[in-house]
Amino acid sequence: MGVTRRTLEKKKSQGEKIAMVTAYDFPAAKIAEEAGAEILLVGDSLGMVVLGYESTIPVTLDDMLHHTKAVTRATKQSMVIADLPFLTAHLPTMEVLKSAGKLMQEGLAYGVKIEGGEPVLDKIRTLTDAGIPVMGHLGLTPQSVNQLGGYIIQGKEEPTVKRLLSEAKAVEEAGAFGLVLECVPEELAEEITKSLSIPVIGIGAGRYTDGQVLVLHDLLGMGGEWSPSFVKRFASVGDTMKNGLEKYVSEVKNKTFPTEEHVIHLREEVKLALYGGRGNGTS
Ligand SMILES: Nc1nc(=O)c2c([nH]1)NC[C@@H]1CN(c3ccc(C(=O)N[C@@H](CCC(=O)O)C(=O)O)cc3)CN21
Ligand SMILES: CC(C)C(=O)C(=O)O
Ligand SMILES: [Mg+2]
User: Fold this and answer.
1) Per UniProt, where does Mg(2+) bind (predicted)?
2) How many CB atoms lie within 10 A of CB 60?
């Protein structure tokens, strides 16, 4: 059966932290599952991290479906959650159901994640009632980057702290099975985590949430030079890749690759029939 919402609820109640990480393709999903991550997020961050867009806004449902399929082909245990991309949750109810339904039926996702509070509460309820597990996402919601005026920490002043706390409760009441909190002060994240019975997963939300999520390429050091300040680099995979590729390029150029061990030969009798004693001119 793998990881379910019940697994996560149990971990919250027992104080065991939940590890969530993004995955966008087959090999990365396999490795992340083997490493023990309970939740793999096919984040719409894939638009920035693997498709080269400057924000998550251009990402389409088809993009999400394509990557979700690759990730679920690799997983047996981990829970796979797919982001609903820009605008999708704000379309008429029928459209939202179809989009989320596609990610589950075709993409084989466990459930979907939806950015926002108040404006999407009815959609969270509708999807939940239809049997689609929904994870909420509050705080810095990157799909609203233009409206927010940039990737800016949320919940710094009293009114927004109060609003985020009440929206988090409303998201839970609407039926969400979990909540991602992005880029908010630790104190607010702690209060929300204590106030909700569903697991709260933080990114740039401090130490006291029920779990953490990071973008895979950020934590492995295989993105660009830039990453948000809440990121810790646990490896330098980008450097390792560059190093390997530089060796490959230089061995091609100086003819040290390929060598005899990488070569396919004709059988002797075929060679004899073709070229006789004359050789073929190269060897
Ligand atoms: N590689 C990558 N990592 C991410 O975590 C990520 C993406 N891409 N793309 C989608 C969203 C965008 N995210 C972002 C992007 C920028 C900041 C950022 O610049 N934050 C500032 C805080 C700014 C302030 O002072 O308010 C920081 O220094 O962390 C944070 C989250 C998180 N997501
Ligand atoms: C950063 C996480 C929470 C996300 O939504 C994404 O990767 O798209
Ligand atoms: Mg996202």
Assistant:
1) 44, 83, 115
2) 14
